[in-house]
Design goal:
single chain, alpha/beta, Rossmann fold, 7-stranded parallel β-sheet, 11 helices, 42% helix, globular
């Protein structure tokens, strides 16, 4: 049995974190995994809307309140389950304004915890083609932080935030040339360009999962587009040398 993985997605609000985590979660389930899913977004819990809690224990788990103590308690519960039952944990940390995970990591090195219990940590920093998104990521990942582990950190350039009249890669040229991005990449962070899904507007209003879209819930054309995007996204992470759970 492969080691379980603690996956967290971080970034500013509206960066596309939730949809990326949803894809990772659905991918894991489709491959026979039984990961735990945590929705810690106290403002717009979109992950819970996609995967509502069910009596059998599946679906997204939410904290009892918006207080940081409740969020930490839920993370601790899931982390114990990861260590004991060897189940991966997928965490939507909420919008950048929450910053609860940033403060938690001042008192707990999640990477060290994962190492102690024989698990992996995968920290996905999601950003669109804006200087504000990069500034947020650079602030959360200061060079002198004891909890910044570049080898487990992936900078996900989300082309889904790029306007349709611009090329996916070209929109991020100024981000890739930024000194802060250069610092992060030289430190050892990997970079993945997550492709744009042209029919995302068909998924979001009806809160469709990628699995449902690929099965035709949004029509045959959207199903074909989603399957094609699914393959491109898988290859993007493979090309970025990212071992997904």
């Amino acid at each position: 049995m492969p080691d379980p993985t603690l996956v967290t997605v971080e970034g500013r609000g509206q960066s596309g974190k939730t949809r990326l985590l949803a894809w990772l979660y659905e991918r894991s389930v489709a491959q026979g995994g039984s990961p735990l899913l945590l929705d810690l977004d106290t403002h717009t819990p979109a992950l819970s809307a996609l995967f509502p809690p069910r009596p059998d224990g599946t679906g997204a788990m939410r904290p009892g309140s918006a207080e940081p103590e409740a969020q930490q308690e839920l993370v601790a519960l899931a982390a114990d389950a990861m260590a004991t039952h060897r189940r991966s944990v997928f965490v939507d940390t909420g919008g950048g304004e929450d910053r609860w995970l940033f403060h938690l990591q001042r008192s707990l090195d999640l990477s060290r915890f994962c190492s102690d219990v024989g698990a992996r940590r995968l920290r996905l920093m999601v950003l669109g083609p804006t200087e504000q998104d990069l500034h947020y990521v650079a602030t959360v990942l200061p060079a002198d932080s004891d909890t910044f582990h570049p080898g487990e950190t992936v900078l996900c350039l989300n082309a889904g935030r790029v306007p349709g009249d611009r090329s996916e890669g070209g929109a991020f040229t100024h981000i890739l040339d930024n000194p802060e991005m250069d610092r992060l990449r030289k430190a050892g962070c990997r970079t993945v360009l997550v492709p744009r899904l042209g029919c995302m507007d068909k998924l979001v209003p009806g809160r469709l999962t990628y699995t449902a879209a690929k099965a035709g819930a949004a029509g045959a054309f959207a199903a074909s587009m989603t399957r094609f995007w699914d393959g491109r996204t898988e290859r993007a992470f493979l090309d970025g040398l990212v071992d997904l759970p």
